[in-house]
Amino acid sequence: MLHDLFPPGIQHALDLAGIFVFATAGALLAVRKNFDVFGIAVLAEVTALGGGLFRDLVIGAVPPAAFGELSFFVTPLIAAAIVFFLHPEVQRINRAINVFDAAGLALFCVTGTTKAYEYGLGLTASAALGLATAVGGGVLRDVLVNEVPSLLRDREMYAVPATVGAAMVALSIAFDALNALTTAAAIVTTFVLRLLAMQFHWRAPLAWNRRSAVSEEP
Amino acid sequence: MLHDLFPPGIQHALDLAGIFVFATAGALLAVRKNFDVFGIAVLAEVTALGGGLFRDLVIGAVPPAAFGELSFFVTPLIAAAIVFFLHPEVQRINRAINVFDAAGLALFCVTGTTKAYEYGLGLTASAALGLATAVGGGVLRDVLVNEVPSLLRDREMYAVPATVGAAMVALSIAFDALNALTTAAAIVTTFVLRLLAMQFHWRAPLAWNRRSAVSEEP
Amino acid sequence: MLHDLFPPGIQHALDLAGIFVFATAGALLAVRKNFDVFGIAVLAEVTALGGGLFRDLVIGAVPPAAFGELSFFVTPLIAAAIVFFLHPEVQRINRAINVFDAAGLALFCVTGTTKAYEYGLGLTASAALGLATAVGGGVLRDVLVNEVPSLLRDREMYAVPATVGAAMVALSIAFDALNALTTAAAIVTTFVLRLLAMQFHWRAPLAWNRRSAVSEEP
């Protein structure tokens, strides 16, 4: 089976690590927004599990892993509790968090694509859902804090690495070459692309002939 | 069966009463926001049925009660029609509406937890979905009117009573003691906690060492 | 079968045309908001497929057509690419786009109602889901760009024609008279009503005795 590419224990530990990092980022945003303790917990849960929840609803994986797997649900609460007490310290290691976030992004776009394909979706749809798994939680988080999702507007190169990773998995499946090696290659490529984008401030293009200085229409 | 704790007729009447009150609150907000007649109806529907719809999608109860049970769908339209014509009068009894809203909150967190457990979810996930049933409609309503959900930021003690009620139901199930008495106890506890929170302005804590005076980051 | 009212090829071509027009409108909004190329593609997809995706999740059509039908997923990407390069030209034919948008609205409220009924929902719920199919993508689009959905507030007569069309289909089913003729009548009625509403600036009413000049509460 596709999801047995890595030993189950390692796979599960990687998933939990990705969930923990995403949840930490969500909880930190909640603290900056002066949310109360309940809002911190909700934003941690939504950021960490929202993308996978959307994927599972679309592919009909009921109940979704976010609710069917207790450790997935509890991990964001632990992250929220740590941020609740130690947010100044956590904030200080923001650079490290960004690196772990890139790792979570890489992992989720790959496992999301694989899971969607296992549930019978086509290659393009599977890659799209892998991408949604990786970035969906962040979009929901931004909607809840009443901001335009940074993914859509910031021109930060966040979605492109995930798209590349999801496409690599889909291509591996198409050529019947999905194995631990190609999976690891997709994860590493996404991770490195994202780190390079952060380091060199790569930006996604605006619409053709559109200057970024143009202000929004009234 | 768990959902036969009360005679079906009473259960259904309670559900409709809760839906009616939530819908009224949603419709009043739509009037304050100057929404048109269609917006009033949509906000009534979303506020009243959004939480249960989310729960039903997650547990795979298809079609969700919001669309499968005609009386659930029609009740918010009646509430919207009343508010459309009589909103000044309805606004005036705002205090009474808050009390009924507390009753709806208490009822929905308990029935939501029970229904999720019946569909095979674990105790923690069931309690989380019971909470989502009770507060989810309000979150969707606030997203639609383009505000940060008051649940996450206002520090008003709204989610905590519902969390307590959902946890009481989950514990009753865990100890094989779910019956009409323990269910009623969970409903009453949630209701009274919410009334006390309103009366004495109990507030949920912000993050540790975070003054509420700190403004949002730019 | 109900969905065989028209030859499958024509039905599919109509669906793709509606998706293309909705996607174009979404992509143009993304350009006006200075979204990057990824944001343009996402807003095109969400606007075109969001309503049908919601309907399919509610009726349990898994995987939803948005992900199960490759041409549905690819069409918004083509619209996004065209808008990315040619947005000034596309913007200039805005009036024509509004006419096509009215056609998409008419088509989607009718096919959405029919599909929901085929999946076993009641007549009222089917009509509601037909309406949601037609207007849901626009609501999600507005939430993502952080605006109150224009559907709820602008008093523009957008939802009313779709409601009429969905109701006509539901009544046709109720009287066992759903055929190519009554379906076409519902589509044409919705389309013409929407064009008349645009031409004569018909507006939906605010709450009774509520002046539109009343400002929002603080």
Automatic annotation (TrEMBL), chains A, B, C:
This is Trimeric intracellular cation channel family protein. Keywords: Cell membrane, Membrane, Transmembrane, Transmembrane helix. It is found in: Cell membrane. The keyword Protein transport does not apply. Signal peptide: none annotated. The chain crosses the membrane at residues 12-30, 37-54, 66-86, 123-145, 181-202. Residues 13-87, 99-171 form the Glycine transporter domain. Belongs to the UPF0126 family. It is a multi-pass membrane protein. The keyword Transmembrane applies. It comes from Streptomyces toxytricini.
